[in-house]
Design brief:
about 140 residues; mainly alpha; Multidrug-efflux Transporter Regulator, Chain: A, Domain 2; two-stranded antiparallel sheet; 2 strands; about 60% helix; elongated
């Protein structure tokens, strides 16, 4: 029978997963990890599966998923009977939101670039940028 790796404390789980101890406690409070075992002294002990889940959560965060989306993704990841269409729906919605945010930022960039082109940037007090911001 192979030996099971020993559970690790919060500092080691944070190091192994790349998630800060503070965020690790937060994810636990949100129920993303399930029940984390405790030592006799009451310290949290994280199993290899917990650390793997933390890495999954970190990757989701790195891709910009919301906490609600991450909770849903964790549930789907842990459910071997899931439909991949459910996962794809979440990812597609996120991509659509990212595209909308990118378009909004590009629109802001174009507007600011136009204002920059209109501003002489010299010692005169008149400034088309401030006029536009003031709604003039």
């Amino acid at each position: 029978m192979p030996l099971q790796p020993e559970p690790v404390n919060i500092g080691e789980a944070a190091r192994q997963s790349g998630v800060s101890a503070k965020m690790l406690r937060h994810y636990e409070s949100l129920g993303l990890l399930g029940a984390v075992s405790r030592s006799e002294g009451g310290y949290r002990l994280y199993s290899p599966a917990d650390v793997h889940t933390l890495r999954f959560i970190k990757r989701c965060r790195d891709l910009g998923f919301s906490m609600a989306e991450i909770a849903e993704l964790v549930g789907l990841w842990q459910n071997r009977k899931r439909a991949s269409s459910s996962v794809k729906r979440i990812a597609q919605k996120h991509v659509d939101e990212l595209n909308a945010r990118i378009e909004a930022m590009q629109s802001m960039q174009r507007a600011l670039s136009t204002l920059l082109d209109c501003c002489h940037g010299d010692d005169r007090p008149d400034c088309p940028i401030l006029d536009d911001l003031a709604g003039s």
